Amino acid sequence: MGEVIFLGLTILIAISALWVVISPNLVHSATSLLVTLFGVAGLYVFLYADFLAATQVVIYVGGILVLIIFGVMLTNKIDKPVIVSDSSNKIIGVFISGFIFSILSIVVIQTNWPVLPNNTEGPSTVELIGKLILGKYLLPFELISILLLAALVGAALLARKKTVNEESDLKIKDNEDDNNSDSDEIDIQDDKGQSLEGEDLNG
Amino acid sequence: MDNIQSYLLLSSLLFSLGIYAVISRQNAVAILMGIELILNSANINFIAFNRFTSDLYHLDGHVFTIFVIVLAAAEAAVALAIIINLFKNIGSVNVDDATELKG
Questions:
Q1: What is the ipTM of this complex?
Q2: CB pairs under 8 A, 24+ apart, for A134-141?
Q3: For position A97, which CATH number holds?
Q4: How many residue pairs bridge chain A and chain B with CB atoms within 8 Å of each other?
């Protein structure tokens, strides 16, 4: 029974990952990426990683995939009925990825992996992972939390919409209020400099 | 199911499909999906090796997988912000159109 489920899961992951890669319609790609990520979560269950299966579903499917679908929807003209993505370099891509896959398969099949015989069910992984995160890996854990915070704040700042009104307001303010306090003036000049730079880049 | 080779073969398949997406796709969001496939294949490798080559009381591979998932989240957020800015500036997300710095 387990073998059958595992085989079905493998075929599901392979086909949906292939469709992610070759589908011309980007929304179809994102949807089959959903199936792929769910399949990988199922694979984690087979590897006794129950906590990671839940994490995969929550973060990948609930977070990253939603972000990707936002990206697909926000970066296309709304009047196009089908969001199409062309592919180029197909022959080179097939050659290189086929080469990598064949090399990896030969290595995987021919190597004598040092496998330990442990067929019994393990202990609960949540307790052990918690002890590792708050003990042995405390410093990487804190660092990566700061990294995630900084990356998310930076992403929100980068993707922020800078409206035309905002820039023209700043210019008017700069012309009218010449005798403001020092800090205000510095702020305004900074903003104006940034907007001018942006215009130059756009032009 | 109980041998490590099947997991490693599946993860190398996912890896090469991701490489193919990165090479052949022109849409930046599709390239991002390929990168997610590559990161997932690395995660499968981590957990498979942790399951088969250590005892069940040492879960360092799981912790590394959690770190990779967090990195993937940060990477997706920053990459999408960059892609949205690219779309605002040049009006398309085709990576072949971003030729401002090309000599």
A1: 0.91
A2: A136/B60, A137/B63, A140/B67
A3: 1.20.120.1200
A4: 235
